[in-house]
Amino acid sequence: MRDLVEIGMGRTARRAYDLDDVEIVPSRRTRSSAVVSTAWQIDAYRFELPLVTHPTDAIVSPASAAEIGKLGGLGVLNAEGLWARHSDVEKAMRRLVDTARDEDPTALVRVLQELHSAPVQPELLGEALHAVRESGVTLAARVSPQRAAELTPHLIAAGVELLVVQGTIISAEHVSGDADPLDLKEFIGSLDVPVIAGGVADYRTAMHLMRTGAAGVIVGHGFTPGITSTDRVLGIGVPMATAIIDAAAARRDYLDETGGRYVHVLADGGMTSSGDIAKAIACGADAVMLGAPLAASSTAPGHGLYWTAAAAHPSLPRSRVAAGPEVEVDLQTLLYGPSSDAEGAVNLFGALRRAMAKTGYSDLKEFQRVGLSVRG
């Protein structure tokens, strides 16, 4: 039964929980982390880490996408970002770093809005995607629902192997006042590449997206407090632990409904430490989409700054531009260690392996069944 609380006369609301509210419960068994696997597979693509990057220019360039892929994760390039709009992205990044010294808190957002007012140039986008593909890693790119129909042919022509359709909040049908709606079921059915879609915040929307034929559903990002500010700007928000668990329940029911079609759940947002990653998997996520924690990498293109694509919205930005973690290490150390940081900002996936080992689980699917407790 849902935990409902009365918030006023005649009005109830569901009690929901964030990742900070839950803890992983140890079991009677432990094992060596050397025999733990963090590998996962979506469609035909296998990855050694349950890591998908949040598609922001702050952490994903063609070079960093290739580096992440070689280390076992999946880098997702933003097809509507700076690499698709400017021939000299490093110059744009230096401008952002210089603007970060401005005491005006809106200055960085204004610069991002200006940089994103330049049109997307398919030839620049193609060059960026080609650089990733030439590295030999899986090629993935993100488009918004509003521009999916327009840009996807260019992405397919460039050899994109996994397509991410991601907005602040997404539905099975995007309705526009001046264009035909994007019917995701029809759109996905017309493609030969797997599609990951989101974000969603509840069981019903997750189930609808799964029924479109999506290979994966993204939980979070747009409504997760922190760097994103959708909760403050639009008043929309769902605590992350509850959102992941609801989407995992939709995955289970959809598996039964279809007689065996498994749709992956990706948690995006609300994770600032390795412990949050472990709790997201424990709540039912198959993989995590990391953003701000990866800004600690010395090769992150944002030079320590972090933002999401929503920061550049021309009229209603819903993301802050902020400094990333206070540590700076190479990407391999950030993901695999060793670490001298005691706060969970480094060795992100070494810590996940240790959490799985300490609770006696050998792979990610098993770990999704670990016990959870709620803080009093």
Q: How would you sum up this structure in a few lines?
A:
The strands form 6 sheets. This protein has an 8-stranded parallel sheet with strand order 6-15-14-13-12-9-8-7, with helices on one face.
General description of the model:
With 376 residues, the protein is of the alpha/beta class. It has one domain (17-374): TIM Barrel. It has helices at residues 62-70, 89-99, 107-115, 122-134, 148-157, 184-189, 203-211, 230-233, 240-258, 274-282, 331-336, 348-358, 364-367; strands at residues 4-8, 11-14, 22-24, 40-42, 45-47, 51-53, 76-78, 140-143, 162-166, 173-176, 179-183, 195-200, 216-220, 264-268, 287-290, 305-306, 322-323, 372-374. The strands form six sheets. Strands 6-15-14-13-12-9-8-7 form an eight-stranded parallel beta sheet, covered by helices on one side. A two-stranded antiparallel sheet has the order 1-2. α5 (148-157) links the parallel β8 (140-143) and β9 (162-166). The longest helix has 19 residues, at 240-258. The radius of gyration is 20 Å and the shape is globular. The two termini are 19 Å apart. The model has no long low-confidence stretch (mean pLDDT 91).
Which structural traits does this protein have?
376 residues; alpha/beta; TIM Barrel; 8-stranded parallel beta sheet; two-stranded antiparallel sheet; 18 strands; Aldolase_TIM; NAD; GuaB3 family IMP dehydrogenase-related protein
